[in-house]
Amino acid sequence: MQRIRGFLLAGATVLALGGVLSACSSSGPDTASLSAQQIFEASKTAMTNLTSVNAKGTVVAAGKHTKIDLDVTSTNSGGAITINNSTVNVIVTTNKDIYFKANLTFWEQTANVPASVASLLANRWVTGITASQASGFTQLLNLKSLIQETFTASTVTKGAVTTIDGQSAIPLTSAKAGVGYVAASGPAYLLKIVSPHNGAKGEITFSGFDATTAPSTPTNAVNITKFLGG
Questions:
Q1: What would the DSSP string read from start to end of 172-214?
Q2: Cα torsion angle, 125, 51, 55, 16, sign
Q3: CA dihedral defined by 87, 59, 4, 96, rounded to 10 degrees?
């Protein structure tokens, strides 16, 4: 179980990228006329008030290539996390129950379980993963924690309006963290983070604001301790 915990804690690597925005309140159509600090506060408020969002992107740190695609809501949250060639699907329910499904590569190469057990666990929903073992990912899949980790404190500067995925956006740059792009009109949603930060490099895109569907609770999951012990 220790190897599993090490993999799950890698979710903290993605959180490390989140500290891009440090100094954005839902604002009207002239967000671009606000100061950098005002835009920051506007975006922080707009994102904090969300009931759901999708976060998708890649992070490279410590020789590991991490890809995420997460649907984070105020009820169930979940998604896929791939580190190198090991892919894990995680769902955290409203009741804080954790469900976990991984590919064969994960069980054989990351968890290092016997091939006979790996084949039984591969692509199968399991329970029995504890909150402490999955803390890196449960933070990512908690809407409040995800937003809090994204908006930390430092000085930002405002750049010229640009375009992100077809939408006008205002770049806010932190000398130590990177760039966060905030919607230039309508609610001041954070659209993208591009960052070298705390040794991590990558980008995360946010979408599906208040329109992301919560994943369903898996059925017929088996307890992982049946195969691996406690």
A1: EEETTTEEEEEESSSS--EEEEEEEETTEEEEEEEE-TTTPPP
A2: negative
A3: -90
- Token pair recorded at residue 165: 């995925």
Domains and CATH numbers, the chain: 2-214 (2.50.20.20)
Which pLDDT tens digits describe the chain residue by residue (230 residues)?
444 444 444 455 555 555 545 444 344 447 888 999 899 889 999 999 999 999 999 988 777 888 989 999 999 999 998 888 888 899 999 988 999 899 999 888 887 888 998 999 999 999 988 877 777 777 788 888 888 777 775 688 999 999 999 999 999 988 776 888 999 999 999 999 887 756 668 899 999 999 999 999 999 899 988 887 65
Q: What is the pTM of this model?
A: 0.85
In this structure, which amino acid lies at residue 108? E
